Amino acid sequence: MTINSYSETDQLCANTIRLLAADAVQEANSGHPGLPLGTADIATVLWTRFLKHNPANPRWQNRDRFILSAGHGSALLYALLHTSGYPLSLEEVKNFRQWGSHTAGHPEYDLNLGIELTTGPLGQGISTAVGMALGEEIVAARFNQPDLPIVDHYTYVLASDGDLMEGSSHETCALAGHLGLGKLIVLYDDNHISIDGDTNKSDSTNTLKRFEAYGWHTLTADGHDMPAIDDAIRAAQAETEKPTIIACRTIIGYGSPQQNTSGVHGSPLGEEGLAATKEHFGFPPDSRFYIPKEAKTRFAEVKAAGAEKEKKWDTLLTAYRAAKPDLAAEWDTFVSGNLPSGWETTLPDFTDQKAIATRKTSGMVLDEIVPRIPILLGGSADLTGSNLTKAKPATSVSPGDFSGNYIHYGIRELGMGAIMNGLALQGLRPFGGTFMVFSDYVRPAIRQAAMMNIPVTYVFTHDSIGLGEDGPTHQPIEQLTALRVMPNLVTLRPCDGNETAQAWKIALERQGPTALVLTRQGLPQITPVDNDTAKGAYVLADVSSPDVILLATGSEVPLILEAKKALAKEGIAARVVSMPSWELFDAQSEEYRQSVLLSGVPRLAVETGATFAWSRYVGDNGDVIGIDHFGASAPAEILFEKFGFSVENVVEKAKNLIS
Questions:
Q1: Are 278 and 350 in the same domain?
Q2: Helix (H) or strand (E) holding 67
Q3: How far is CA 54 from the centre of its chain?
Q4: pTM, full prediction
Q5: Are residues 169 and 131 in the same domain?
Q6: Distances (CA, A) of 45 to 35, 447, 628
Q7: What stretches of 538-658 show up as alpha helix (H) in DSSP?
């Protein structure tokens, strides 16, 4: 087969893909057939001529990454995975969108099946792909040696109009252009149709000019002309210093009676429409999930070629091991996802130190552990000096130099979150900082990380009214509760340096995402170095027979310790419980939880945030001192006093509970 030579068999493969997808949507009577019908030619060129992958080993480290950012077209991905020989059976394709199947309505992360990440919320796929492409460059800079490029793969994205309209793509693609991610190639399904109709109803952006302004290489191609698509991808690969976007002009629902209409975006073709579409492409109108013999043969050839590519890479890796045994050992640790042995021994002990903000103790922890953990990758959304996320030994990633371990994301909180997801999917352990109140901006990406169960750490500083004069726009009130209700996310609000150190240990030993919620203001050192932060809540100060239990997180733990002393002077015995993580506490045994929150003893919780949901811990007869309104602009000590975070108020509330 000559370069750029396409035959009837290639077109047959494309038609097989598009009709398998259409069959799956029709079988489910639910889904989005428009994109698979319109982009099957693009996908076939990419998957059969360019994509470096081995369906027999979906986890091959040096595979090219393919991201279907337009996740509503998931039936296209499932058709590609099945026909290419991934362990996704035809039965799974037939069970599209059904209970218990692996073929969900939008792709859900499963590397064993070849699904690189969870997509669906438009913009998240392409934005996460920027992180994957950046991760490839960073890992390559760390491990590649002259003539031994063991890390050398592309990140390909199939994106829609919706992906490019979403704000996250603006944030991440601007950074991709700035950094010059030359191995990122976006295939833009330029069909001019969204759910509401023609895109000219809501948008007149010159997309390629926009990307050109970002510093991207821009190309166009007829999305139904295989040689033209081939030429464009080759031109994209030839540009090594800029990411590339190829605007592939397509017809949504191509070949169906509903083509070029918004109706084909999200509705099955119907039996008559499906039969007419199959007839248009020369398939038996009454066939179902039909894969012609010639197409099967071609797909099998592609699968065999993929196995040969991995075999060739294995030979390269063997040579690498012989030439660079020390680096090869580091590579094996990286691939395993394990942290270096003994890294936790460098965690600092803050006992007997002065009052320090937990954002500062976090920075001090990073100073010690970043040099010990090569896969740690820090960053901040333009708040490095406030979040204190750049360790002293860290160096910055910059255009053309990916050897560093710190990323300046700019004022792009959502973009940072999505990029960190991509970095984690490349095997790195990213952490990134912003103010706690801006966790709302990051939230869609946090949710993706939680769904994929990937290890991303969020450093949210300036966690309460304690930041004072900046006022209610910057004082988080409801954000803690918002984070706590997200499944699979562990949120930690440490009360001092030793709890902060333990919080970092927990975050780095977890598989899933973790949020660290840290103060601006200084806090006294009140916990032992071997505290029980990992249990979520523990008794910090006790009495033999408590009259009341005082619970708090973060900056309010020192407050309830002082209240305990004041109550003791009045003959009232109080147990003090530090509760840095609801999620970790809920994961403990019932016996342990009851040993901390004694049954029958009244409980008072204190936290500078929304009181909503604290009732699960204080019970019907307990009370909460919190904030169910927005803050104010004033010095922090004034705000704490005015809003009831004082020893006197805690004592009064505790006495009321007892009486």
A1: no
A2: strand 65-68
A3: 25
A4: 0.98
A5: yes
A6: 16, 33, 56
A7: 557-569, 582-586, 590-596, 615-618, 636-642, 647-658
Residue 54 near residue 69, CB atoms below 8 Å: no
What phi and psi values does residue 550 have, to the nearest 5 degrees?
-105, 125
Name the region of 287 (left: φ>0; alpha: ψ -120 to 50; beta: rest).
beta
Distance in angstroms (rounded) separating the CA atoms of residues 586 and 505: 19
Same domain, 646 and 502: no
Spatial strand order of the sheet with 623-625 comes to 538-541, 574-578, 548-552, 603-606, 623-625
Give the domain range for residue 582.
Answer: 535-658
DSSP string, 95-109: TTT-TT-S--SS---
Question: From residue 479, how far is each of 378, 441, 474, 491 by CA, in Å?
Answer: 23, 11, 11, 11
- CATH classification of the domain holding 104: 3.40.50.970
Among the three residues 264, 283, 308, which one is the final residue of a domain in this structure? 308
Alpha helices in 85-225 (DSSP H): 90-94, 124-143, 161-165, 167-179, 207-214
Q: String of b and e for 105-140 (b: at least 16 CB within 10 Å)?
A: bbbbbbeebbbbbbbbbbbbbbbbbbbbbbbbbbbb
Claim to verify: residue 513 and residue 548 sit in the same structural domain: no
Residue 640 in this model has a pLDDT that exceeds 60 = yes
What CATH code is carried by the domain that includes residue 611? Answer: 3.40.50.920
Q: Is the dihedral of CA 64, 70, 71, 74 positive or negative?
A: negative
* Alpha-carbon gap, residue 409 to 200, rounded angstroms: 32
pLDDT tens digits, one per residue of 6-53: 999 999 999 999 999 999 999 999 999 999 999 999 999 999 999 999
Query: Which pLDDT score is estimated for 3?
Result: 65
Give the residue from 280, 258, 284, 260 showing the smallest Cα distance to 269.
Answer: 258
pLDDT single digits (tens) 495-547: 999 999 999 999 999 999 999 999 999 999 999 999 999 999 999 999 999 99
Backbone phi, then psi, for 598, in 5-degree steps?
-55, 130
User: By CB neighbour count within 10 A (0-12 exposed, 13-18 middle, 19+ buried), where does 658 fall?
Assistant: middle
Which of 567, 562, 526, 527 lies closest to 548, judged by CA? Answer: 567
3-class secondary-structure state, position 540:
strand
Out of 136, 166, 310, 413, pick the active-site residue. 413
Q: Which of 190, 191, 185 is closest to 235 using CA atoms?
A: 185
Q: Note whether 97 and 31 are within 8 A (CB).
A: yes
Residue 227 lies in a domain: yes
Q: What percent of the chain has pLDDT over 70?
A: 100
Q: Which residue has the tokens 């990380």?
A: 449
* The pair of three-digit structure tokens given for residue 346, joined into one six-digit string: 């460098």
CB 364 within 8 A of CB 391: no
- Relative to beta strand 155-160, strand 184-190 is parallel
Residues with Cβ < 8 Å from 201, sequence gap 6 or more?
none
CA-based nearest residue to 553, from 512, 588, 518: 518
Q: Is 368 a known active-site residue?
A: no
Question: Considering the domain boundaries, does residue 323 fall inside one?
Answer: no
Same domain, 84 and 206: yes
Q: Is residue 46 part of a domain?
A: yes
Q: Scanning the structure block, which residue is given the tokens 């990122």?
A: 184
Task: Quote the mean pLDDT of the chain.
Answer: 97
Distance CA 232, CA 132 (A): 22
Q: Residue 1 pLDDT more than 70?
A: no
Domain count, the chain: 3
The beta-carbon contacts of 638-645 under 8 Å, at least 24 apart in sequence, are 639/465, 639/466, 639/468, 640/465, 640/466, 640/608, 643/465, 643/608, 645/556, 645/559, 645/606, 645/608
